[in-house]
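Task: fold both queries, return tokens.
Query 1:
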Amino acid sequence: MGAWGYQLFNSDNEFDVVISDIDEQASKLAKDPMLTLYEPKNKKRVVKKLNDGLFHELLQLFIRKEWKHGVIYLAVLSMRLGATIPATDLAYVGQTLKDTPMYQEAKTQVQKGLEGYKNNGEPWDFESKDIIDAANASVVPMTWKKGLEQILKDQKAWEAKQAKEPKPATEPKPSVELPQEEKDRMQAAVKAWFDFQMAP
């Protein structure tokens, strides 16, 4: 698992663990195996389910499990879709955010969203950079990026060193001369085999 930034949706862990688990729980409660809160194909249908009580059910489930990141990302995913969230639920998310370990930049995005969310059906844009934008902008000194650069640097250094070093001359392999007796024996064996194959 890796990360390409300090913002929301900037790590594999968010997609492979948090969002995946939220979608799994949401699909079970909604009895809809195809349901997803992240980039759903039918946003209106998903928003309606959230507005009809799915959000609150999921929130209560995550509270019972004491899953703080589940609480935070449930709100984040729902706000991205423009779901209508009960004021008391949003207030609980805000309180949970204070005690949830996250990158400060991501936490600031969530706090800004909670403060600015109109809660009237209008989706909230958290303005997170995707992996391409983050890499191009050098948002973080990525470990994987440094590692790749070092590998390429070492490879070039090795190739340069190899180019400067004189290549040892290839010594010709000594030819092995078979004794005449052995040659005659092999020729006789081949002739006998050939005669056998050609016999009527």
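Query 1 returned. Query 2:
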Amino acid sequence: MPTKSRKELYREALLDVSIDRGTVYDVTQQELDALSAFTTKNSGPFISQSQATQEVVDHNRLSRKPSPAELAAIQRLREALEVKDHLWSPDIVIKAFHDLDIIFFNGRLRNNVQFQWKTPEAFTSHVRPDDFALGATNRTGRVGQMSIKLNAHNLLFRNVIQKPRMQVWSTALHEMCHAYEGVRAQTGMKPGHQKDFDLKIEAVHERAQKLFGLWAIVPAEELARCGLYKTWGQNHGV
């Protein structure tokens, strides 16, 4: 079967996410709906930035023994990563959000993060014009609750990203590291890529590589191959 065109992937990404279409994944419609609208408050308890960072580092230690629920999530995600190109739809990263959360963030993002594909217009108010934005994480005005947006145009439609399937997961993990600060830390999400962020994403990247061969940190050579090292890498401290 032929691989889907970029135009088709872009169109699919902007459809409402439903268990009845797109990539098959073990998730409920209620879980999917919770990623587009908050139904509960985040009442904490909240901790310091350094404590939030240490939680992620400790959870992603390669020596830690995963729980049965985490092992089940790992298996579901491995099966999803093996889906053939002609069956793969961008909704898979949305459907797998809760498993990514369980595997890399101990399930602490659940009910506190909106996670959606968006058009470029959704990024104009908080992304610099010269920044090739693949995703963004923003405050929502609700305490300890964040919004993650994936840029469907730049990740899927533009003929720049050479490995869109790989980059979709990388962007999701990157933004989830940002969101974790906003969900767990008393001071909320720090701007940019500070030391705490670097420690979190390095721990997530190492484990993502070991478990799935995925990136959380895009290799410099991949950025260069896509022609993004100057515009993306410099803006992100690479």
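Both queries returned. Flag for query 2: The chain has a mean pLDDT of 90.
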